[in-house]
């Protein structure tokens, strides 16, 4: 199956190519980038030298010769391609925020008008697998909401308050240099940012509601001196206390058939480079601490996008994603 | 004034010596270490070469020739020296946990019997300056409770729940090699530990109570890939909502005369090597996020101990501590 | 093909298991560890949870049921197993130093008696592929000599002096906690060690000689704050000057058929987790700077061991090793 | 004494202010920055909040009210201020490259015309203290040449070849975001850059010549994942072999009266934040390895500039610089 990646010069584009090298049925045949047009992909993603010989092209959906597309462009850019891809019948996973929320909430959260809205399944397979199966366009979740929602899901209905305290690696700040991702501002350091106003909170609330929860959700992210990974500490306040055993059973029951969710003491190093979400949980009565660890570029972006593709296309869900995290 | 440091081979001992080099009235004349006895202090604290020529000696309180002592030994070891120091009339700051809590709570928290209990002021000057002034023995607070309590203090009385989500640098794990402080387990990584059961929680609860708060306090620490520093994100749930302006005013009023508390966007880099505690606060109505940053070895240990010494001895409170953080 | 890993609880053991998960013909069925006997492999190598269900066993060569073995034990331990493995006809790659050098040089370099000496090919495929093909026991090179020798090989005959200035990640210091690999001693830091006396120098000299070089070889390693990787800067002093073009041609000619050697500006990030050795070269007349980057646990250990296995067994040389480095 | 810092918004400007806070005779009363004009210095150098209340001004040499000036602007900018400062009789240390080299070598090295050339002492006090004493304008050395020259100086006359293999922290790349100092390009990584062509080599050669050496000098820098510090490994090839004892004596003799040079096993952590240069040396016969460690922003820039000021003004040479490095 021929794959096109629209917007392939960033970190998620690079990881899509890296991961698809291991896929048994898919091959990246088109990688677009306006700024890098004509250059070999491996001149930008130098880790991939000799593993791919394709060159960046200008995005041209009309003449796109591909069976499946990944949109790895920023929000508002994705909506410019989405309609055309739909029309042409090219199945698509969109890694941007453009189709994750209802039109209203999207527009108020991102402060822009949505010029090409339609409904798309929210591509968190552990919650929405059935609707993803039949879809030809899936909205890949944000990196923070992926780890946060998986951490809290088994308890969401029982909680009155959920506080997500997340810590993210620097690759989440993108591939362009800025004060935010400058080494001297990040290394041997830690900061909180968007303490109460990060846009990913809208997705967390949407998914909590989907899970039947009426809990108040809060979210504070922090910028860590690591390259990859998001660790989310979910402080979950329950209406009624639960014992450690009861809590563990809820998590085991919910995730026992989920290959990519592993119930063990989570650490960023333990999932580095992989599509796993490791989750642990500890009860303090009415307050539960649930911690999840993901690689923000894999389970938080490109790996989950491939997982969605596999489900959409009827492939083995783990195809291309069944390899070990790199530790240390 | 001649200073003795009992237990001077660890990180806090090293930083006490480093900081006291800048003090106008104090000089370290005795540094004890059983394991390093006879060696020059600068052969262990190699950063201090040519800045001090004293040698480690065996601790011998009976013959100690010093005007002031710092106990920088582990908990349970401090109580072995404390009584003798008191008897000899040597003013002392104890950096261990042995005198921070009531006897009951100490014994249940640390699971040991206290064999030499007496009451001592809790050496957080921003809360207890007046009783420190007259004291000849002060219990220096734990690193986590220092940052956590300062972050929440202005709101403690108004809260029903306070969740401290703290992130600490590796020097907090001490100077002896272990799996916990091994580079390959920490670098490019993040983990939570003692998710609901860290012993410092007892101090946080004690101080919240002192502040007139009846809030439930919770605490989850994380181990960061940084050398120094603790960033504490206090998620404070209020009974009644407060606006951003109201919250800011509460913090300004409480800290306007505190040299070592600076109200600005906190980061570990911004306080590195210094005695400052930087605090920021943001309102989301009934949930307030207050974030504090300290250097765990300075404001979280040795610097605060010197601040206490200054108060106990009637020196300028900032003597030896009025220098800039090292950034980047 | 059933694979046994003797000494599987360390970093190289972990990476052998991780890498062999991707191999089309090999499966790890035995992993030994005296200290971890009976525990699931994934309880030690937690990154591999749900990817392998084998348990550590005690090493028992006599009853070993395997087609191929990797010795991932320290030097002097390997020689205790090597003879028995040979007798039993189990093809083996030894990752220790025990069979890399002649008996004389081994004994003088390592200061121990070799109690089970025999000759074995030096498993650097780019130099010794032909003899590896027919071998049933191969000595896998040291991590430093791999990167150093590949960096200098095309110029070795033309040089009178080669100075290898290497910088290694912390995983090279092994899996047990020590002052050397303690976070606070390594992070935000850099040190040189064994400035003139590192034992790997003996391998570098042996390989230079094999290449027909009479150059004096020197070696100084440094400990970097990174998890994985060795960057070697080879300062090569020539008898006669060479232009940039001439030098580049020598490298292109030597490595044009080597999949795992890529001629591009090397960085540790660009090879992380992979079996690639990236090499760059720049001429300053009679002084040439050649720089190589490898992942010390992969091309410097476990990946190269699998590459050797592939050659010994007639498999595709890149089987299990044809995947992209993880960047960033 | 009133101090003006021309170009005070960068890292060296920030460290000048930080360090001068500890000086007994100097006070920064003017800090210029075109881009930050009008803002409090501590709004840019947030580590200095509450330690200084001055604001950035536009540079205006004509009306400058200061007793001493530091030029902390880029090369070519410094020459625009230097003449006027001289005319006005304001003693000055220039941290740029503009007055470090002869006019010819400067112009060929930097590829620009020098529009205001005059001779100035090269401000490496350990080599040029006497001429600095009487000077009213001193050229502060580059960061790399400082560490490199101090490492090799005692052996320079005896060497035929010196290869400086240097490893620098990221603050050397300046305060503006770029691909070079982007976290994801540097962290858990290592690269060499300007392998044979770095401009600082001209200073190294000039100083070797000053020391009476006819050795060929070479230089290759590397970019390290650390904030501060330069470790230089000098591979020194001698005409005649020297024993370890002979070499050590040469270093002891040369540096026995130099407070800021400490002969001990060097590490970046051991000098962090301080003006020390730690040097170690090991003999391998005709090849000597000498390693130096400095903080690139202190001994490699701002600290050395203050050391020069102290000498020029007849102050105690260590005034403001006699404090301990921050470790860990």
Automatic annotation (TrEMBL), chains A, B, C, D:
Q: Cite the PROSITE patterns for this sequence.
A: ARGC (PS01224)
Please, which domain of life does this record's source organism belong to? Archaea
Pathway(s) annotated for this protein in UniProt: Amino-acid biosynthesis; L-arginine biosynthesis; N(2)-acetyl-L-ornithine from L-glutamate: step 3/4
Where the record annotates domain Semialdehyde dehydrogenase NAD-binding, the positions are 2-135
Give the record's keywords alphabetically: Amino-acid biosynthesis, Arginine biosynthesis, Cytoplasm, NADP, Oxidoreductase
| CDD domains assigned to the protein according to its UniProt record, in alphabetical order | AGPR_1_C, AGPR_1_N
| SUPFAM superfamilies linked to this entry | Glyceraldehyde-3-phosphate dehydrogenase-like, C-terminal domain, NAD(P)-binding Rossmann-fold domains
Role, per record: Catalyzes the NADPH-dependent reduction of N-acetyl-5-glutamyl phosphate to yield N-acetyl-L-glutamate 5-semialdehyde.
User: What's the protein here called?
Assistant: N-acetyl-gamma-glutamyl-phosphate reductase
The species is Methanochimaera problematica
- UniProt lists the gene as argC
């Amino acid at each position: 199956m021929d794959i096109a990646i629209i917007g392939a010069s960033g970190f998620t584009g690079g990881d899509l190519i890296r991961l698809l090298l291991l896929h048994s049925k898919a091959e990246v045949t088109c990688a677009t980038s306006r700024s890098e047009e004509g250059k070999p992909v491996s001149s930008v993603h130098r880790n991939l030298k000799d593993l791919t010989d394709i060159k960046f092209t200008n995005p041209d959906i009309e003449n796109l010769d591909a069976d499946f597309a990944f949109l790895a462009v920023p929000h508002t850019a994705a909506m410019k391609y989405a309609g055309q891809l739909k029309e042409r019948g090219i199945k698509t996973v969109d890694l941007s925020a453009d189709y994750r929320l209802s039109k209203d909430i999207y527009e108020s959260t991102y402060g822009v008008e949505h010029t090409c809205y339609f409904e798309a399944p929210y591509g968190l397979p552990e919650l929405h697998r059935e609707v993803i199966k039949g879809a030809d366009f899936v909205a890949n979740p944000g990196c923070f909401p992926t780890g946060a929602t998986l951490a809290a899901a088994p308890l969401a209905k029982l909680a009155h308050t959920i506080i997500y305290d997340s810590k993210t690696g620097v690759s989440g700040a993108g591939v362009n240099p800025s004060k935010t991702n400058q080494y001297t501002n990040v290394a041997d350091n830690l900061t909180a940012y968007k303490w109460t106003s990060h846009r990913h909170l809208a997705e967390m609330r949407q998914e909590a509601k989907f899970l039947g929860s009426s809990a108040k959700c809060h979210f504070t992210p922090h910028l860590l001196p690591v390259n990859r990974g998001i660790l989310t500490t979910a402080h979950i306040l329950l209406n009624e206390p639960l014992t450690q055993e009861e809590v563990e059973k809820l998590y085991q029951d919910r995730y026992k058939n989920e290959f990519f969710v592993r119930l063990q003491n989570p650490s960023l190093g333990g999932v580095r480079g992989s599509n796993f979400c490791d989750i642990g949980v500890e009860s303090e009565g009415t307050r539960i601490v649930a911690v999840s660890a993901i690689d923000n570029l894999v389970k938080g972006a490109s790996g989950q996008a491939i997982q969605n593709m596999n489900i959409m296309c009827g492939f083995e869900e783990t195809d291309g994603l069944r390899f070990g995290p790199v530790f240390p």
